[in-house]
Amino acid sequence: MMAPKENQTPRRRAPGMSPEERRAMIIQTTIPLIAEYGAAVTTAKVARAAGIGEGTIFRVFADKDELLQACLAEAFSPEHAVRELGTIDISQPLPDRLAEAAQALQAHLARMGAIAGSLHASGHRGGKHPGTVRGAGRDESTTRIRTALADLLEPDRAALRRPPEQIAALFFGLLFTQPHLEDGPEMTTQELVDVFLHGALTGGAK
């Protein structure tokens, strides 16, 4: 048997996750599974996807229902959308800024709809807005997103018909209520922004 080398450095175990970090990791793993399986997703399936033992889930969540509610709250949280809006380069022309904002917010709204819809369709009674999310209720969440939008509009304040805050509220409302067109192709993000900024008339209309 070979003796260990004197200068051999002992291997150290990687530091474990804190309970908060493990909770966040499990939530991020579970969200796409909820979108696929709804409330029928099992904690065993979550554990396999996360590469952990099933018992680890119950060290940070009381039960599966608490996990589902935490995922719903994460999906409705404005944090990710606000961060995405904050990364948009404000030196770009306004149409480009709004196009990027629309893409970020449409992704946020789609994520909310996928999780809430999947839970509701599978009979989970919590498949709706969870109320307070990370200290922010529904109204405050909407306000934070509108504020981030207003910041993107601020460089063009002088060219706007209304204050940036009002324009941001109108733009967010348009994205939130955009109807599905059954008799034609969906509007692209650029088309949506163009109609918002310049109206429904073509350039040649009088």
Question: What is the CA-atom radius of gyration, in angstroms?
Answer: 23 Å
What structural class is derived from the secondary structure elements?
mainly alpha
The CA-CA distance between the termini, in Å, is 93 Å
**Main pleated-sheet profile:** none
Distinct helical segment count: 9
Q: In which range does the helix fraction lie? A: 55-70%
Low-confidence stretches: none
Number of strands: 0
Give, in order, the helices and strands.
HHHHHHHHH
Shape: elongated
Per DSSP, what share of the residues sits in E-state strands of 2 or more residues?
under 5%
Description of the structure:
By secondary structure, this protein is an all-alpha fold. It has nine helices and no strands. The protein has helices at 19-37, 43-50, 54-60, 64-76, 79-86, 94-121, 138-153, 164-177, 189-198. Helix 1 (19-37) packs across helix 4 (64-76) and helix 1 (19-37) packs across helix 6. The longest helix is centred in the middle third of the chain and has 28 residues, at 94-121. The chain is elongated. The model has no long low-confidence stretch (mean pLDDT 85).
Name its key features.
206 residues
Tell me the layout of helices and strands.
Elements: H1 19-37, H2 43-50, H3 54-60, H4 64-76, H5 79-86, H6 94-121, H7 138-153, H8 164-177, H9 189-198
Helix pairs in contact: 1-2, 1-4, 1-6, 2-3, 4-6, 5-6, 5-7, 6-9, 7-8
Give a brief outline of the structure.
The protein is mostly helical.
